[in-house]
Amino acid sequence: MGEVWRARRDDGIYDQIVAIKLMQPGGPDRAARFDNERRRLAQMEHPGIARILDGGITADGLAYMAMDYVDGVPIDQFASGRPLRERVRLLASVCDAVHHAHTKLVLHRDLKPDNILVDQNGQVRLIDFGIAAAMEESETGGPLTLAYAAPEQLQGKPLSVATDVFGIGLVLHTVLSGRLAMRRHDASIVVDRSGIPPKDLIAIAERATKADPSARYPSADALGSELRRFLDGQAVFARSGGLTYRAGKIVQRYPAASTAGSLAILALIGGLFTSLNFASEARGETKRANSALAQAEWQLQRSETFLQAQVAYGDALQRLFGANADAEALSSALNNIWLEAHANRAGNPETAAALSYAIGRNFYFRGDNVSALSIFDAWMGEGYGPPEMIAFGEEVYAMMLQDAGRVDEAIPRMRDLVLRFDTGFATSLTDRVNYAVRLARMTRDEADILLGEDLLQQRLTHDLAPFDRLYAFSQLGSLRMIRDDREGALEAYGEVLRMYELHPEYASNGRDISRFNVASLQLFVRSNSSEADRLADLILTEDFALKGVSLQTGRGYLIRGLAAEAEGRTGDALAALSAAYETFSSFAGAESTHAISALSALAVAHASAGNLQAAEEELARASALIGEADAGDDRQRKIRLAHLLIRRSAGAAVEDVQDALLLEPDIKALRTDGLSRYYHDRLVRSGVPGLNFK
Asked: Terminus of the chain with fewer CB atoms < 10 Å: N or C?
């Protein structure tokens, strides 16, 4: 394709040695490849990739480019005779460089030792993107190096990130064993187990070079992370050695682990919370050691399962990197990735489950519960994938069901989670508190409420990190609302906002929800519409800038509309409440509790503006959306109380409204249903005797 010369700058400006690549004549195809290489190299900004410095056309009409001159040798020559750990570190650096190219949507397609140089400083330098291709290109043929080509290259099939992962795997085999791997009939390789003594590295090489691209590591970054897990003495994902293998890894990392005190440190493996208190309370050296190891294993399983999902999700995002897609386009693309994985679940249930969890969870925490449930309903309905991943999915699924108003389905799942996390481990307390509080909010049962409060008090006695304390106060506010201690709830939520002021780095993790909670109580309890409106503006400006349009955006519009209606600014109220309804419909569904809240508030605002016909139309629309909902349904309650408030504002007699109000069967529900309670309290202020909440 060309010639490469060592060259010196000759314009006298400064001294510089470069590599000059000259394209040989060869027609338009060769010229196009050369131009593509220059264009792709210009995107690269990584110390592990040789840069392009200049380019142009010679006097003889030959295209050229000037590149970094790498004074080095191929990686297999450099690594020969060096310690194993140094060789593995070099290979991890190769993964970093290849991953950078992938983030620029470029596949190298010709990874081999001659194209991976190591300079005099030990820095890996990736060169020769002459046959590279953009990820979006569908080209299946083209030049290749037979000895290092992936099976799909040899078979003329579509190429992907996994193609370069295979190339790295072959280079890994050459660097570690000192010889090129032999091929099987399916073009996969036979790993030289005698030449690569550590079993972890054998497993890594075998996974990276699987014949099936979907069975390899999902990205070069994932392969690099796996190599660093080996260097750090951690269990690698390519092996499934169970407790014996992982416990052995723990002991290797902590040589003094034969003592009970050191074993307690092993419980930190999960990376979330310490179990030192639990270990110190155990009686006897053996019991303390067993407890610490058991807790380390329990948390390690959860961490590894979560990391598996993160790896799968990271690869999915990588495939979209640089697309400049808006939120709607990104959501559509992620959903298409999930649909592809779901369709292939029989052949690769592990990846399908990991992507179901990761993408569905992403939709859920962005407030798009409709998309999240479409994924989790399908996944949980079939239950494919590893049991640990399914258990992780159950946790998020129970919360999704609750937020979607599918309470009858959510309650038994949430109760099972409360029992599941009764492990006796300090690391499980946070999860158990979370699910116990959610269960209490759904059932409003006295025993569930007391359990949630008791567990929360235990949690608050620990020396918590700022974010954990912030979250605990948020849960405390929720429990106080269930007990109808609304001033106490306002105090707890106020503490949450003060902690956000001290730690703005946590702002993207729920500050908008906390502002909504405080704004609701300021409006509903203290009738402080100006403070509620101020907080709503912060949700729609500061928090919107952090997260974009989400379910919380709808809550900001809802509070803004309710505050405007309370102040008599009915035009502003109607505009804000309409925006709230549209947002809720998009993210939670038109029949969701959120959307019905906005419609009922819109009806009340129309009545305040004197348009009773429009008010009745909005309530009729809300009733049609929920169909034959039970009388105790939160949505039905909002519609009924809004209707009574509208009737009262239209001049209905106190006795007529009171008779209808006293039919309300679920007093406990109004303790946490802020909007319905707000309507009830407004009826009381209009002269209607209210319900007794004590």
From this structure: C
pLDDT at 264: 30
- Which tokens belong to 87? 């060789």
Buried b (16+ CB within 10 A) or exposed e, 521-547: bbbbbeebbeebbebbbbbbeebbeeb
Strands 189-190 and 182-183: antiparallel
User: pLDDT grade, residue 298 (50/70/90)?
Assistant: low
Q: Are 678 and 529 in contact (CB under 8 A)?
A: no
For the chain, helix, strand, coil in percent to 5 are 65, 5, 30
Domains 2-68 and 72-239 in one fold: no
- Whether the per-residue pLDDT at 313 is higher than 70: the answer is no
CB neighbour list of residue 420: distance below 8 Å, 6 or more residues apart? 391
Please answer whether residues 375 and 343 qualify as being in contact, where contact means their C-beta atoms are separated by less than 8 angstroms. Answer: no
Contact 477, 492 (CB under 8 A): yes
- Closest by alpha carbon to 495, among 520, 466, 523, 524? 466
Segment 581-590, tens digit of pLDDT: 999 999 888 9
- pLDDT tens digit sequence for 374-391: 999 999 999 998 877 787
Separation between Cα atoms, residue 452 and residue 434, nearest integer Å: 8
Q: Closest Cα partner for 216 from 287, 165, 253?
A: 165
- The reply to whether the predicted model has a pTM over 0.70 is no
197-204 average pLDDT score: 90
Contact 316, 359 (CB under 8 A): yes
Spatial separation of the C-alpha atoms in residues 119 and 396, rounded to whole Å? 48
Angle between helices 529-538 and 551-566 (to 10 degrees): 150
Given a cut of 90, whether residue 207 has pLDDT beyond it is yes
Dist. CA 285–CA 305, nearest whole Å:
30
Q: In Å, how far from its chain's centre is CA 690?
A: 45
CATH code of the domain made up of 72-239: 1.10.510.10
**DSSP secondary structure code for residue 605 in this structure:** H
The architecture that CATH gives domain 2-68 is: 2-Layer Sandwich (3.30)
What are the residue boundaries of the structural domains of the chain, listed by start?
2-68, 72-239, 507-685
3-state secondary structure of 54: strand
Q: What is the reported pLDDT for 261?
A: 28
Q: Are 664 and 634 in contact (CB under 8 A)?
A: no
- One of 1.10.3720.10, 3.40.50.10490, 2.60.120.330, 1.25.40.10 is the CATH number of 507-685, namely 1.25.40.10
Q: Contact, 641 vs 619, CB < 8 A?
A: no
